[in-house]
Amino acid sequence: MKIVAICGAGVGTSGILKVNAERALARLDIEAEVTATDLASVAVAAADAQVILTSPEFVDRLGKTNADVIVVQNYFDLDELTAKLEAALG
Amino acid sequence: MLALPDAAILLGRTAADWRGAVLLAGEALQAAGFVQQSYGARMVGMVEEFGAYIVIAPGLALAHARPGPDVLASGMSVVTLAEPVVFGHPYNDPVSIVLGLAVITADEHVAGIAELANVFNDPAALGRLGAARSAADVRAVFEVPGVS
């Protein structure tokens, strides 16, 4: 399974999202590859992704995708991330 | 963790708005020798282009821009605000702590970012930063054992 974390620059916030998504997935005992990338690369990076993780600002800019889009409010709330990933993947 | 010298820590500052707050984080990065002056404006530009997505948790903004020639070394800055400012985020406003992040390449700071997650996954960390009265107080918040 492939999960992509999106932010504007692909440098800071998506990195935090990636780290914490991996922790949430470990809690759920789900195996997945999580990558961090920027909005400009999303079409390629998320072409075969099952889930896109991002912030509210980017939802309307993602364009067409077959992936489930998970909007994350607090990047440091592992409970929120775990619950949303479980709902999307469970 | 990412370098965080005293010069990169500004406590109890006042900013007129989110731009001023982000520029303070840029000034702190510049004072520490991590970036040139243009970097602060580039961090502002990220928010102008993409919105307030850098407000990644309640009260906390992670200001940053892409790597570029104005980044001299990788490092971070911490600004605490006496009065919180509004960034326009749907859930996490207002912001009282701004972290500034500068990296040379997109990949080499992954370990540093993971450590930031370690720090702020503790909900008490923001309150401790807000209450910090010295650079040593701030650094103590970031010195947590890695859990990854």
Topology:
The complex is a heterodimer of chains A (about 90) and B (about 150).
Chain A: E1 2-7, H1 13-28, E2 33-38, H2 42-45, E3 51-54, E4 68-71, H3 78-89
Parallel strand pairs in A: 1-2, 1-3, 3-4
Helix pairs in contact in A: 1-3
Chain B: E1 9-13, H1 18-31, H2 38-50, E2 60-64, E3 75-85, E4 95-102, H3 110-120, H4 124-130, H5 135-142
Parallel strand pairs in B: 1-3, 2-4
Antiparallel strand pairs in B: 3-4
**Quaternary assembly:** heterodimer
Order of helices and strands of chain A: EHEHEEH
- Choose one word for the global shape of chain B: globular
Distance between the termini of chain B: 13 Å
Q: What can you see in these coordinates?
A:
The complex is a heterodimer of chains A (90) and B (148). With 90 residues, chain A is of the alpha/beta class. Chain A has a single domain (2-78), classed as Rossmann fold, CATH 3.40.50. Chain A has helices at residues 13-28, 42-45, 78-89; strands at residues 2-7, 33-38, 51-54, 68-71. Chain A is globular, with a radius of gyration of 11 Å. Helices cover 36% and strands 22% of the residues of chain A. Chain A contains three helices and four strands. In chain A, helix 1 (13-28) crosses helix 3. Chain B has 148 residues and is α/β, with parallel strands linked by helices. In chain B, helix 1 (18-31) runs antiparallel to helix 2. The model of chain B has no long low-confidence stretch (mean pLDDT 91). In chain B, 36% of the residues lie in helices and 20% in strands. The chains are: A alpha/beta (90), B alpha/beta (148).
Short description:
By secondary structure, chain A is α/β, with parallel strands linked by helices. Chain A has helices at residues 13-28, 42-45, 78-89, and strands spanning 2-7, 33-38, 51-54, 68-71.
